[in-house]
Amino acid sequence: MLITEFRIILPMTVEEYHVGQLYSIAETSKNETGGGEGVEFVDSYSYTGNPIFFGEFPDGQYTQKVHHMASKVPQYIRALAPKGSIELREEAWNAYPYCKTVVTNPVYMKDGMFISIETMHLADKGETENVHRLTPEELEQRKVIYIDIANDKVVPTDYKANEDPAKFKSEKTGRGPLDKNWIETSTPVMCCYKLVKCEFKWHGLQPQVENLILRVHHRMFTNFYRQMFCQIDQWYGLTMEDIRAIEEKTKNELNELRETSSVKGTMIK
């Protein structure tokens, strides 16, 4: 198992992030869906009494999705995996400011593959050293990666000038463009602490695929949070009632996109 903690610092408050993240997830889902592939919403509901983090945060929103992605994975995986097996089930418990997401492949890999992402959101610059309360053994194994949304390099094919925080300026908030020292000078500021645990039990491919999973998440987090900041004028000031209405509309749009448009979004190499 690989354990990696990504720390993504953002120029917004923890309260603003809650709305912005949900809005941007809906938009990203549409951008990744088409040609029979992409995101399928299965279920979503509010829950109470499920203390998923050391007895804390018992109330939240449960969401289940299926990611159809046969043509987006590397050729060597497509060659080995049976037809119809490259689908991932994502279950998420959003008890903000703590969230947990578990990704599995129940059709083919069953207990042989899982990805767990636990996220805590704090109003700091990434200085908290054990926000996920890892054991000494887990801390020894953990790798920490900081993501700077303005200055880290992105894959050339992922780059879009209108999603570049080093060029974008928000009309509603006045934030941006973000310079080389923005983390030290920006107000407000917060950090997403994302703990990714992944395991892939496939003889001969385990190290290769586990490292691929981490590279994909690094790329995905970098792109997503660059986009989220540059979309701030679209979601700033929305209420949670607005967000739930957007999510409901997105469910129907995703079903139509999978049936009518061509394959699009991020290809994994």
Automatic annotation (TrEMBL):
Instruction: Identify the InterPro entries for this entry.
Output: PI_transfer, PI_transfer_N, START-like_dom_sf
Record-annotated Phosphatidylinositol transfer protein N-terminal domain positions: 1-251
Per its UniProt record, what PANTHER family does this chain match? PHOSPHATIDYLINOSITOL TRANSFER PROTEIN, VIBRATOR, ISOFORM B
Molecular function GO labels: phosphatidylcholine binding; phosphatidylcholine transporter activity; phosphatidylinositol binding; phosphatidylinositol transfer activity
Name under which the protein is recorded = Vib
Species annotation = Bugula neritina
* One Gene Ontology cellular component annotation held by this UniProt entry: cytoplasm
